[in-house]
Design brief:
Elements lengths: L2 E5 L2 E4 L4 E8 L7 E7 L5 E8 L5 E3 L7 E6 L4 E6 L8 E8 L13 E2 L3 E6 L1
Parallel strand pairs: 2-11
Antiparallel strand pairs: 1-3, 3-8, 4-5, 4-9, 5-6, 7-8, 9-10, 9-11
């Protein structure tokens, strides 16, 4: 059973930074793709960023390009989301997701495993 546990959310002001972490357990993740999604109140869950486990290829939503960086530490089975220059519109619950595939997906239906989410609130 794959388990994903996110941490690092919180309340910050516009322009601040946060780093989210997602610790994965239960499998060998060398063949997995990982992603971050977010869901704001009353809205659908949207893709934020994704990374392949084996190589450094990364993918971002246009709304976060240049501000967010996804990375992973294979030895720690951990994926990070560094969020800089945060805006009020980044306020959402952020979810970590995993799929057993070398290729990344950009839709939530592409991912089988999900964390419980961590709240990020950006005040203006």
């Amino acid at each position: 059973q794959v388990q994903l546990v996110e941490s690092g959310g919180g309340l910050v002001q516009a322009g601040d930074s946060l780093r989210l972490s997602c610790v994965a357990s239960g499998r060998t993740f060398s063949n997995y793709a990982m992603a971050w999604f977010r869901q704001a109140p009353g809205k659908e869950r949207d893709f934020v960023a994704a990374i392949r486990w084996r190589n450094p290829s990364t993918y971002y939503a246009d709304s976060v390009k240049g501000r967010f960086t996804i990375s992973r530490d294979n030895a720690k089975n951990t994926v990070y989301l560094q969020m800089n220059s945060l805006k009020p519109e980044d306020t959402a619950v952020y979810y970590c997701a995993a799929r057993s595939s070398l290729g990344v997906g950009l839709k939530d239906d592409d991912y089988r495993y999900w964390g419980q989410g961590t709240q990020v609130t950006v005040s203006s």
